[in-house]
UniProtKB/TrEMBL annotation, chains A, B, C, D:
<keyword id="KW-0521">NADP</keyword>
<comment type="function">
    <text>Catalyzes the NADPH-dependent reduction of N-acetyl-5-glutamyl phosphate to yield N-acetyl-L-glutamate 5-semialdehyde.</text>
</comment>
<dbReference type="InterPro" id="IPR058924">
    <property type="entry name" value="AGPR_dimerisation_dom"/>
</dbReference>
<dbReference type="InterPro" id="IPR050085">
    <property type="entry name" value="AGPR"/>
</dbReference>
<protein>
    <recommendedName>
        <fullName>N-acetyl-gamma-glutamyl-phosphate reductase</fullName>
        <ecNumber>1.2.1.38</ecNumber>
    </recommendedName>
</protein>
<dbReference type="InterPro" id="IPR000534">
    <property type="entry name" value="Semialdehyde_DH_NAD-bd"/>
</dbReference>
<dbReference type="InterPro" id="IPR036291">
    <property type="entry name" value="NAD(P)-bd_dom_sf"/>
</dbReference>
<dbReference type="Pfam" id="PF22698">
    <property type="entry name" value="Semialdhyde_dhC_1"/>
</dbReference>
<dbReference type="Pfam" id="PF01118">
    <property type="entry name" value="Semialdhyde_dh"/>
</dbReference>
<dbReference type="GO" id="GO:0070401">
    <property type="term" value="F:NADP+ binding"/>
</dbReference>
<dbReference type="GO" id="GO:0051287">
    <property type="term" value="F:NAD binding"/>
</dbReference>
<keyword id="KW-0028">Amino-acid biosynthesis</keyword>
<dbReference type="InterPro" id="IPR023013">
    <property type="entry name" value="AGPR_AS"/>
</dbReference>
<dbReference type="InterPro" id="IPR000706">
    <property type="entry name" value="AGPR_type-1"/>
</dbReference>
<feature type="domain" description="Semialdehyde dehydrogenase NAD-binding">
    <location>
        <begin position="5"/>
        <end position="124"/>
    </location>
</feature>
<comment type="pathway">
    <text>Amino-acid biosynthesis; L-arginine biosynthesis; N(2)-acetyl-L-ornithine from L-glutamate: step 3/4.</text>
</comment>
<feature type="active site">
    <location>
        <position position="132"/>
    </location>
</feature>
Length: 322, 322, 322, 322
């Protein structure tokens, strides 16, 4: 099989590192170069030392656009548009952007949530990869939105691991602060609500309810937990059935009949869901890995779809489990 | 000053241990005996080894009722009533029960939440110490209930440390499971809702709203975080003012103008609150230590009140901070 | 390709679970049955819920010996011998035992440390898989033993994650105890020293030095860190060269020129080494995942070798990294 | 009682914060001002928010030297000498410096390790407070040094919490890096070895053995664990007796007959020791809180001694325990 010539732009950060960890063992992918302005000339293993033995690549700060079949963009939010203007890739190159810049589906980008947009992604050349909280919340509620069950405010609490804040040092990611601690940030105003509402409006044009989302900083490095609920008059089994049907062709999103916990999904590309009916509410739990299903794993899933590969190619990951 | 002759029943568990840590240095208290059926004959330091150098006491399984001014009961839920029938203490003995058994204020017990019931506690001989989540949630909402501001369902998420589950081994407190993990339990049905609604009904007989409470198991040992909200038409400053007035005589409950995090309260008897107004909701964060303000610290606070001591005697604790 | 018909005995524990996580995606392996006395009749995903979507298998308590090409034994230490007497597998079946029972190479078992015994393993039908600390310590010192450099007592400290203590509940794996804590156990007397000395004696019959090993319980779930040192008169570069040569055909054991940390190896089958020369000592750091290179990953590596497969088949695992 | 007029210089960091947490409740101490160049004009509670309700002080960048009975210096290492030259305090002011600058006992400073130097500290006006690892290691070995038992190289491994690295952000204190991780730094060359050897030479002029010390970065915020050993021909009980005698007047340093773990000492001013005899070695474990007995707690202990107060005044701290 002829391999897909692939590049990663902005490969020194956490999501770039996860892309590397996935792509060095992806049998359909040939990594042509990995780009980083800050780390140019260094070996990849100097920055991602766990990759020892897996790659001899070095970072470059040069951007080659010709002869590239696929490029992943892991630039800071707001820099992608300028980058693509400066470095126009050929029309046949599949561009998968992990930033927020094109999640509004401007400039011909498709929103890369395969559970909702699989057909569009399969034919796309430009894919905007969803945010981490956005992925967890959309997968929690999308089947209910599709059924038009959410007719009042939905209440959501979510807890994210520290890697969601990236590699840059900050007070709230200082170990002595973060360990054993909890706090809330961006109360009801998290920026991912925008892309969530866009998707829900596409699924169901009648949807217009408020989403009150409390995002917590968690005392762990990886993973996102979502609890979402809204008033629901139906039976639990009806809801479980609807969710299973909605995700019947989704190879990573599963409805668990048993109660779940976060680590079931950590270090995998899965989204594991569990539903409950209590006090007149339909309650959905979701567990994902924020760097995988919430970022780089989903990006590779979109890459697979865009190139007509098996959707789970290179993504049968062993969970951390414990 | 003549010291208060004090006993602890069920002193081998986590709340019993915290009582010991507080009372060995409480200058008005003389520990007469510490009781444990399971550990009788052992030195206290064999079970609570951090107390090395602080006490030479041994556990006993004998219950002396005469000559005891104050007794703390740290028995498993459901065992206190039988214990007191078998071991009747004199009428003058102050009984402080940390179990759920008398939180319904039956049998002459007063519900020991000083911020609400200080006057009753000052004259009480029988005090039922509140639950940990109950303390955090009540302190989050009591001023709003008093103002009759909660006119629709209030939404609450809370995260508890593992010590809330006690010393007994269980699958959800196994380190390999719990570390880096999150999960929900007793969704909307936590047993503390009963005592919370009782208090709110006492504060405001008109109150009858639903409380939808999502309790999380957190990946830390100590502390409870509460986020509570409900629709509110007033201004934030009005609410802050009302909360400060409500707690003006409370030496441990503080309204922070700045954003807060959990560890500010850990290893202290404080409840630290912060208020926000966003999307038409009044949102309250609360941070407590589940074993102190949520259990043994509040028990000592009640002890101080019952004996007319300074309310914060022996409770000026250094926070863990980091 | 005809698949290797494989069974797992004792598949409900941590090492059994890791075997399952590896083998469900191992393209040369067909899982015939997974055995557990305690969980018989349950779905595998009821016990290892992170495997949702990966397997529909159920645990059985029946042991089929015919038609099985390979069997992994994950029984408690001391039970394997009796099990094999009761359930004799045909002579052609490859038996890979993860317990300590045959690590003395009795009953025709080969000690399954590929970096030392690869040739023997390639022809073996009975393989005794090394212990976790044993793997880390042997890989730290084997090249130096081979060179006869260790001529005085070697000093070793090692820190293990909690999963080394297994799934059974215990006081030292209670979350409220273990989190933020450190302690030492089996000081200088850890049972793995026996198999370590056996290997070192095979590598170098002149070796007879004492190994003083301080094993720590670490505040994390996965991983083993080893620091080992002994007086060394040579140059660092000489040692680095010797280690690289010793491991030149080892696909998982790498000598890093840069300093290392534990998480580089966690959730992989790698052993990452780093050498220093300081104060006249050669110092070796090693990082492995106790459940993978220290148990189930190495077992699959042995499986690959025994069946003439690529040594790293099914073992190109994505590290947790963060 | 007339209170001791006290100032803290450099009070915005971790050790400064711990001094504040201790001194706001120290009944013999009156805090005159707290100094910080970086935080001047801010309320103390803006930087140490857990102190809400405990102090209304604000940071100042002015240094008042007159009328100050005691000053604690928490400046970065290397800045104290210049500071004192610029701001000469009167001869009667007790100066307690937490930096490394005067631990060599230059300029009239006494090394403030009360277990060794109590008499000198009681008469001192200038006290150099020991380092955190230095405290743990010295208390582990001092009685053996005094007995002249250490006649060969002593081997030491130690694990420190992240707060030892202070408040400044760094890659090795980034939560996503540090959590679940282990690594070694400053192998055999930690700067505290200098003050340790100085003390040991004072205790026993014949002492001149090498100390091989492996310092680990631990996956927790507070605490230092030390394991130290050397060949010893005597009986364990002889050693235990010697240690108990050496520490008989030390109110915070205890020899536990039972095995110990780190958290027994965390958030207290205690040093808890345990001794073992194994493989011909005397092995000593020590547990301290790096910020308390290893820094600010010991500074207050020195303050108490210098002013003739009870040595444990304000230092009967509740351990975190869990």
């Amino acid at each position: 099989m002829k391999k897909i010539k692939t590049a990663i732009i902005g490969a020194a950060g956490y999501t770039g590192g996860e892309l590397l960890r996935l792509l060095v063992h992806h049998t359909a992918c040939e990594l042509m170069y990995v780009h980083s302005n800050s780390q140019k000339g260094k070996k990849v293993t100097a920055v991602h030392p766990d990759l020892i033995g897996d790659t001899e690549l070095e970072f470059t700060d040069e951007v080659q656009t010709e002869g590239i079949d696929a490029v992943f963009l892991g630039l800071p939010h707001g820099q992608t548009k300028g980058f693509l203007e400066k470095h126009p890739f050929p029309a046949h190159t599949v561009i998968i952007d992990l930033s927020t810049d094109f999640r509004d589906e401007s400039h011909g980008f498709v929103y890369g949530l395969p559970e909702v947009n699989k057909t569009k992604i399969q034919g796309a050349k430009k894919i905007a990869n969803p945010g981490c909280f956005a992925t967890g919340i959309q997968l929690s509620l999308a089947p209910a939105i599709a059924k038009n069950w959410v007719k009042e405010t939905a209440h959501i609490s979510g807890i994210t691991g520290s890697t969601g804040a990236g590699k840059a040092l900050s007070e709230t990611t200082h170990f002595s602060y973060r360990t054993n601690n909890m706090s809330v940030y961006k109360l009801f105003t998290h920026q991912h609500l925008k892309e969530i509402k866009q998707t829900f409006g596409q699924i169901n044009p009648d949807f217009g309810q408020e989403l009150l989302f409390v995002p917590y900083r968690g005392n762990f490095s990886r993973g996102i937990w979502i609890t979402a609920y809204f008033p629901f008059e139906g039976e639990l089994q009806e809801a479980v059935q609807a969710y299973k049907e909605f995700y019947q062709n989704a190879p990573f999103t599963w409805v668990s009949e048993a109660d779940i916990d976060l680590k079931q999904a950590v270090n995998t590309n899965k989204c594991i869901l569990h539903l409950k009916k209590e006090k007149g509410q339909l309650v959905i739990y979701a567990a994902i890995d924020n760097l995988l299903k919430g970022a780089s794993g989903q990006a590779v899933q979109n890459f697979n779809l865009a190139f007509g590969l098996e959707e789970n190619m290179g993504l049968n990951l062993k969970s951390i489990a414990f």
